[in-house]
Amino acid sequence: MNFLNKITSVFNTYAERNAFCIQNKFYSYTDLLALTASIQTTINSRCPGEQNIGIVIKDDIETYASILAIFFSGKTYIPIHPTYPPERTDQIIEQAGIKFLLSKTDDTSYLGATLIATGYSSDQKNSDIALASFPFEKTNAYILFTSGSTGVPKGVPITYHNLDSFVTAFSALAYEIDCNDRFLQMFELTFDLSVMSYLIPLCHGACVYTIPDSGMKFTNIYNVLSTHKITFALMVPSVLANLRPYFEEIDLPDMRYSLFCGEALYKDVVVEWLRCVPNAVVENVYGPTEATIFCLTYKIEDAATIIEYNGIVTIGTPMQGMEAIVVDDAHQELPDGEKGELCLYGNQLTPGYLNAEKTKDAFFELNGKRYYRTGDITFRNEDGNFIYCGRVDHQVKIQGFRIELSEIEFHLRAITGSSNVVALAVNAPNGMMQITAVFEGEESDTEPTLEALKTKVPPYMIPAAVHFVATFPLNTSGKTDRKALQKMIA
Ligand code: AMP
Question: Pocket around ligand 1: residues whose beta carbon is below 6 Å from it?
Fold first, then answer.
């Protein structure tokens, strides 16, 4: 049974149960089905021939019903963030060839794309969804755009086969999930961890609890966890860093599964978290967007047995249908214990980026298998666990968001007309990572530059601090010595 058959069966079996809780309002599977069917009818009448359809994402039921309507029609969704810079959105619309965008309201306009209002359609005759017949292997379920080092976002298509393989591999983890579970959905729909957070519960007749947009995000997350007695939560480790001052008071006995993904998980903080979720299985899971949500897992039993390296918890072993190897610069496999780049192969791997040039750089063949180079430095220990050591490049994670520092630098250079600017990720006094822009030369007003940057990149990529250094230090090859620069501004 594929994931769409599972959801169809859930619609029949759990019709009266709640599917979503959004802004404190519950929606049953019957409500979700009716809205999904209605949006599917609208898609069929307005853009039957279109494969790629954008969704202007909001924290509302129409957004999730739009995703399902697209899935049931065998089409591809591309999330469009309404507050990201229009120029970036236009690049996405152009790259994905989007002609139609589903949106609850028509308060926005986008490059050449026609907005289609979602909601109950008056010509909707019944609440049946039609499950289209289409090839899972070749059809994209969604395309997500990640930070691209050359200043243009990189489109990652994920096929129905990839997504279904994730759902199958997830089932093989043997978590005991049923219709009584309550799942946290804390992610923006432009980030693929959101897909697990809504799709797995919908495959089991469970309920998805989203996080309100307004207010402090981390406070909202804790409120939802405790008020709704969440039983399954996939979160980014930054949530822990923010909640840590309150760990003494936090007690979440209903939590059965507490998963972390998206960035390095530190042993010291997760060990303290174990006490906050006394009845939960706690896991560190790992994976890039290119390998569909996550594909390695590591179960954290207790402080004494945790496998860690430099304080970072291991990312564990590959899930069913996926393989991982460590290679050297020449793409040759390294023996256990030797550090190199982690490469992934298997059912969850994207067929390649929208931009074929990027695909050439990131994939290679070895022994008849097509591997994706993650850019993560790891080694495999004697138990077969992959130990995370850092990155080979300038990609960083800030609160789970994937950021190419080179993309920020690209725009800062274009705006200032100078190549003497570097973007660094540094530890702020509150222990959180933040982006810092370092300019070479005399101190000057950077406000206009940062304002201009806001029109190019999403808010999470705007530097939180700015430094000036008279002359950039150089390394032996004459390039800016980023490590030395980092020390100079510390
Ligand atoms: P994204 O495509 O946004 O999911 O980002 C993928 C990248 O996030 C990976 O290549 C890693 O650098 C990082 N990442 C994801 N999960 C983990 C983890 N559990 N531990 C360390 N880094 C992680």
Answer: 146, 261-265, 284, 286, 288-289, 315, 374-376, 388, 391, 397, 402
CATH architecture of the domain formed by 399-489? 2-Layer Sandwich (3.30)
In the chain, residues under CATH classification 3.40.50.12780 are 3-303
Alpha carbon of 76 to ligand 1 centroid (Å): 24
Average pLDDT over residues 16-41: 95
pLDDT in tens, 330-372: 999 999 999 999 999 999 999 999 999 999 999 999 999 999 9
Query: Do residues 369 and 346 make contact, with C-beta atoms less than 8 angstroms apart?
Result: no
Quote the strand ranges of 266-368, DSSP E.
281-286, 296-300, 308-309, 312-313, 317-318, 322-327, 340-346, 363-366
What is the CA(141)–ligand 1 centre distance, in A?
Answer: 21
- Could you tell me the pTM of the whole model? 0.94
Distance 286 CA to ligand 1 centre (A): 6
User: How far apart are the CA of 12 and the centre of ligand 1, in A?
Assistant: 37
| CA nearest ligand 1 atom 10, residue | 288
- Nearest CA to 59 among 91, 81, 35, 92? 81
- For 139-171, the pLDDT digits (tens) are 999 999 999 888 889 999 999 999 999 999 999
The segment(s) of the chain belonging to CATH 3.30.300.30 are 399-489
CA nearest to 400, candidates 88, 92, 191: 191
Q: What is the mean pLDDT of residues 52-65?
A: 95
CATH topology classification for 3-303: Rossmann fold (3.40.50)
Q: Whose CA is nearest to atom 23 of ligand 1?
A: 263
